[in-house]
Design goal:
The protein is mostly helical. Helices cover 80% and strands 0% of the residues. The radius of gyration is 19 Å and the shape is globular.
């Protein structure tokens, strides 16, 4: 069981450290100290849910209904584009908010954490197709669940470290000009991610029209 747990942990570690909208949101929450631990835990719960669905056999269903990831992808494109443009247009006085506003933003932070986690088709590809597909080499459900728990535990550690360590950077960005630069950079990255997601969605649409071009990702990752 320890071996399969470590396999899931290392597999998720190779996937989660890539630059993405979810990681950017966790990083920003940590720098602002805006419910960063809650945000980390919510992102972990979302990852846990997706991964558990994968190891319990949802990969096959996901592969046979590609329309789902296309719908999620289109909504994700719109959300990332809107959020990225919003960061570029945000006035500098909005960067530093009072403690009262921080407390009132708890619900908003939770909703955004959920949104960044589930409106990302790559999260489904990683959690359901890759991790779920990898775990399918084990015939026993407890072993597949062990892989999933290892992957989910990696997510928890990563989000906690990312949000907590980012707070150490906050004094560097106390200058509104630096914060504007950081937010502007984040906005550009989010817009870039929306464009890259657009290319992916276009590719998925082509695969639906020409199924012979599609490669089953489950079989390609299994030994």
């Amino acid at each position: 069981m320890v071996q399969v747990f470590l396999e899931g942990f290392l597999l998720q570690a190779s996937l989660i450290m890539a630059l993405g909208a979810q990681n950017l949101f966790v990083l920003e929450s940590g720098m602002r100290r805006q419910h960063h631990l809650t945000v980390s835990f919510v992102c972990f719960l979302c990852d846990l849910t997706i991964i558990m669905l994968g190891v319990m056999g949802a990969a096959t269903l996901f592969h046979h209904f590609p329309e789902f990831k296309i719908v999620v992808g289109i909504v994700g494109i719109i959300f990332l584009l809107q959020y990225g443009i919003g960061k570029l247009r945000r006035p500098k006085e909005d960067f530093f908010v009072s403690d009262v506003l921080k407390e009132r933003s708890l619900r908003r932070s939770i909703l955004r954490a959920i949104t960044f986690s589930i409106l990302n088709p790559h999260a489904y590809l990683d959690g359901i197709v890759l991790i779920g597909g990898f775990s399918s080499k084990y015939s026993l459900l407890p072993l597949r669940l062990g892989v999933g728990m290892g992957a989910a535990f990696c997510s928890l550690i990563w989000f906690l470290v990312l949000s907590s360590a980012s707070g150490m950077m906050m004094p560097v960005f106390q200058d509104p000009r630096r914060m504007r630069l950081m937010m502007g950079t984040a906005g550009v990255v989010l817009i870039f991610l929306s464009m890259r997601l657009s290319v992916d969605v276009y590719g998925w649409l082509l695969e639906m029209q020409r199924p012979e071009l599609s490669i089953n990702p489950i079989t390609t990752i299994l030994p």
